[in-house]
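Hi W.,

Here's what went into the run:
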Amino acid sequence: MHELSIARSLLGLVRDNVPDGALVKSVLVCVGPLQAIEPDAMQFAWHAATDDTEFDGAELSLTLLPWELHCLECGRNWSSENWSDPCTCGSCRVDPVGGDELTLISIDVDEANTIKEPAEGSHTVMRNPA
Amino acid sequence: MTEIRIVQNVLKHNDEIAAMNRQRLRDAGVFCIDLIGSPGCGKTSLLEATLRRLHSRINIGIIAGDLATDRDAKRIQACGAKVVQINTGKGCHLDANQVRHALDEIDLAGLDLLIIENVGNLICPVGFDLGQDAKVGMFSVCEGDDKAAKHPHLVRVADLLLLNKTDLMKYVRFHPATFREDVEKLNPGVEMIELSATEPKIDRWLDWLLSKTQAAHDLTSADIPVPVGTTKELSDAR
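Here's what came out:
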């Protein structure tokens, strides 16, 4: 159940990256197979982590990446759901490449609506830091 | 609707703290491993056997992660090592911040080797960098020869794999060739050591530990320049 730790980290990262008061509609995350993330458990953890926060209701959109395989005999590269696939050349000497991705790609924010009015003056400070 | 592009590692904060842990350990010349294996594969027994053999030669510290109880810590302490126990409660793995606090309780200057015994679990601890120099994945023959294939994540990232309880091989259905074949596919060329912690037959493991510990010590003595910024981050974090 490492999904809960990941959900909490994700929540912190989202908080660091959206303007005060912005209404977050959805969060896009890419996950490689090495992270061993179970999508249902991840959704459950995201709901638990965001419950009663300013991001309650924000959708978590997960893109599960396949294994990227590289044949050590013929050099072919391909994607597969299964790391133990042999190559079409017949070789079983296949190296899984990468796969450890766990990346927050983007956040969709509804700027027409805000969840709260930022304190007066804070916008000015944010937009004109000088 | 506005899209804010981020493209950042979700575990960024964990990785930042792990990098600080790594620098602290490197500055002190300590070699650190993260030992990951299932409950009952023999992690604590291996540590006991290791300490009995090595504790007169090098200074070893242990961070023991467990859901509950200090039984492991007591067993290890009895063998003469400095132990910090982390009880994770419901947590299924250790993270870099827990290790950072544990490091505060250890005199790193008096240490050569630090072994972090992670929570017994083959899945959750794998993705969390703690600041170790090497991740060591541990299996035992009683778990079956399919466990490497079923836990590709650990096998793939491990710097060393241990196969324990080889003395029980004759009593269980375990085909070493099947296990080795899956390991070789997932992590071509990774070193694998077969051992028996309770007999104990652990010489190759001890040789590996001693050579890596010596290399870490030599690296620090060679006065490698510290990358700009790392020292500052380290002091900020304290």
